[in-house]
Amino acid sequence: MGSMSMEHRPYRSHKVPACARCRQRKIRCKVDLPNQPCLFCREKGVACQIPAIANSPDDSSPSQPSNSSNTTNTTTSSTNAQKRRRYDAEALSSTTSNLISISQSSGGIDGKSSIIVGPSVAEDVEIVQRHMSITPQSQSSHRHNSTTYATEDSLGSVVYVTVPKYRRGVTPKLDTGDKQREIVEQIFGPFKKEAIRLYFELIHPCFPIIGEELRLQLLGQQWNEVNSALLCNIYASIVPLWDRSEILRLHPRPDSDYIWNLAVRALQEDSTSPSFSTIFICAINVIGRPSLYYIGNIANSSRVVALSHSFGLHRDPRKWNKPLAEKEMRIKIWWCVFIIDCWSSLSYGTPPNIAKGCHDVRLPEIQLSTSSASSGSPRTQTLEY
């Protein structure tokens, strides 16, 4: 009776599973002789390889299995238990390693991005780092002391933490949007520097989101080292103003739609590993003209607000232990992001992403912003306005 039940059992039966070769070929695993390989394996002259399957506690059979079956089931259960314990240990180790990497300092760590958390969760970060570390106590205390606070007083201060910058399994790219930039610069030819100069003459004074250091780099000799995705969006924003330049108006205007499509692709590539420059790229993309892709602008507006929150731009940095230029840049960028969110909400009829009471950045001070600018220059007049 036992052999008959095994012979006429259904395919993929849980009581008598098919061997590995029959399962791979998706054929019927016919067992016609007890304690012998199946018909297909006997014809090939090989032994059956039964995959290890954990037995359910509620499975029952009217017929008693043989002693060899009991031995096989016991060995299988023991093997599966060891695998489960090994998997649980690996999962715990992976989770704890992620917690350690999050609590590390951002300086000199490849593939990491620094974000800022508020005072309400800063204490939780310390507790997680202190009590859930698998490293020795000496190393754990060293990591604990390396936590970076924004101010000297750790009470009520925001804290810097590091998180993975790339998705697991994604190969990091040093320069995002390089292929799109190569195409755009082939179209612009020898007028690339003129396009950048025109951007800072006509667009930047109206919306000065790019910092002074980056502006000087773009106008200087090291402009080739700037992020390619940022340059693609700067080039695209200049195309509608092509005739405003005495040099560019003498040459054919590039196709605006084609240039903007390349700029959008460069932005999407940069968004796979967002950084501080992604805020600049999103902002320039949103304020670019002509504004026709409404869904993309809404998504980019939400993205730039989310990144600003992640980098702590919504917190007042005046008391932070940071250089004056960085604090000035953070304040200016935040209010540019705030303007983008307000205008996007008004233009597209969507709720604003920045809620009242969730930011404490005061308005920029003119005496700080104009400290390095000459009196009467267009930049100074824009800031005063």
Give a short overview.
The chain is mostly helical. The protein has helices at about 1-5, 20-25, 40-45, 65-105, 120-130, 135-145, 180-190, 190-205, 210-220, 230-240, 255-270, 275-285, 295-310, 325-350, 365-370, 380-385, and strands at about 110-115, 150, 160-165.
Distance between the termini: 96 Å
- Which parts are unreliable, with pLDDT below 50 for 5 consecutive residues or more? 1-12, 54-109, 132-146, 368-375
Total tally of structural domains = 3
- Counting helices, strands and paired strands, the structural category is mainly alpha
- Give the helix tally: 16
Identify the overall geometry.
Answer: elongated
Assembly annotation: single chain
Strand content: under 5%
How many strands in all? 3
In percent, how helical is the residue content? 40-55%
Q: How would you spell out the order of helices and strands?
A: HHHHEHHEEHHHHHHHHHH
Biggest sheet: strands side by side, in what order? 1-3-2
Report the radius of gyration as a whole number of Å: 31 Å
Overall pLDDT level:
73
Largest sheet: 3 strands, antiparallel
Explain this structure.
- The chain is mostly helical and 385 residues long.
- The protein has 3 domains: 2-81, no CATH class; 94-164, no CATH class; 178-384, no CATH class.
- Helices cover 52% and strands 4% of the residues.
- It has helices at 2-7, 20-25, 39-44, 67-103, 119-131, 137-145, 178-188, 192-203, 212-219, 228-238, 256-270, 276-287, 294-310, 324-348, 366-369, 378-384; strands at residues 112-117, 148-149, 159-164.
- The chain has a 3-stranded antiparallel β-sheet with strand order 1-3-2.
- Helix 7 (178-188) runs parallel beside helix 10, helix 8 packs across helix 10 (228-238) and helix 10 (228-238) runs antiparallel to helix 11.
- The longest helix has 37 residues, at 67-103.
